[in-house]
Amino acid sequence: MSNKKATKAHSKKSASRFYAVQALFQMEASQSSVSVIANEFETHRIGAQIGLHTYNLADLKMFRNILNTAVKEQSRIDKLTDNALKDNWPLKRIDPTLRALFRAAISEIIIDKTPNKAVINEFIEIAKAFFPEGKEVKLVNGVLDNVLSKLQKNSASKY
Hints:
The protein is an all-alpha fold. The chain contains 7 helices and 2 strands. Strands 1-2 form a two-stranded antiparallel sheet.
């Protein structure tokens, strides 16, 4: 793959992750189904032109995979996240954008097609977009590292 094509593919994957966080947030806020929200994003946001602004294109298969895995595995993902948070900050008390971000990131880790450290780095960058002040970014890094460590320990203990 040429460097230009690789950069374009990476950009689409990054956009897929960003849209997935937004979609998961919207699903929670509106109590809408994954199919309704995915269709809305694919029809009206991803690659859409609104006024003078054109939204980024995304890898739609990856976008759907993250969303579907997040919904299918939400109980497991939320338990992993909750266990990685401090006792006095359960998942239900944290910002809904962070919940969506954790669900998307851990979904991609579960899907296991991208190196885990790359997934964590990508979601740290997304956290920076939503939380430019930085303390949430440190939380994202810590929680995702903790979850990854637990998943790797559980995976190793199966063999």
